[in-house]
Amino acid sequence: MYIVDRSVRFIRGALMSYGPSFLKRSLWDQEYSTSKWNFNDNTTSDIVYGYLEKWAKKGAIMDLGCGSGNTSNEIAESAYGQYLGVDISEVALAKARKRTQENGRTAKNQFVQGELLGFSPPQKFDVILFRESMYHVPLNKVKSVLEHYADYLKPEGVFIVRMSKTQDGKEKWRPTAMFRVIEKEFDVVEEGECSVGFGGTVMVFRPKSPHPIKAS
Ligand SMILES: C[S@@+](CC[C@H](N)C(=O)[O-])C[C@H]1O[C@@H](n2cnc3c(N)ncnc32)[C@H](O)[C@@H]1O
Known about the structure:
Layout (H helix, E strand, L loop, with lengths): L1 H17 L2 H12 L15 H9 L3 E5 L5 H5 L7 E6 L2 H13 L6 E5 L11 E7 L10 H9 L2 E11 L2 E2 L2 E2 L1 H13 E9 L5 E8 L9
Parallel strand pairs: 1-2, 1-4, 2-3, 4-5
Antiparallel strand pairs: 5-9, 6-7, 8-9
Bound molecules: S-adenosylmethionine.
The site of S-adenosylmethionine has 18 residues, from α2.
């Protein structure tokens, strides 16, 4: 029974990351229809906020795989001017919009359903964030997906990626390999680790210069 359970969870997890978009959307909608992700209702102590607030410079943030609205409602309101959250799950986005309304941030926070492997936003950003969502990019696409989004960074803009590299004290190979790709292919400007609370690693980076920036 244990082996069957583990296999079902493994296949479901693989489909949530690598399946066709309609299936990923349906599986993520199911996830957010349960209480499984309710712990995200309070992540105010997370390591990511210090970096976001520093690099947003009161400007525009795009949050890819934004989930149910923690980042857009927990970041200091004075730290940003505009926020666009993108997620594959409409159920997550409905929660994010409700939280935003309750929090009086509708003038700043916008949400749109989209596929993070190739979303095309309508503007450029000071920060493009992947918070616990880079896991859903296949390892061999990390570079090309980031190159796609590099065209939507302002000239001084940065990517911020937050992931947990360890679980139960053991190093997880995929996030570690993803951070290696980033270190090799991009200019890392800042990095931080936190082992308490939610734990995790944050990497701040930008395209290697000179990056050909497309006119918008
Ligand atoms: C682990 S949750 C992280 C949520 C939030 N960023 C946070 O840190 O609390 C991963 C999020 O990525 C979204 N996601 C997964 N695959 C996606 C894809 N292909 N396109 C867009 N969103 C995706 C899921 O719906 C989910 O909200």
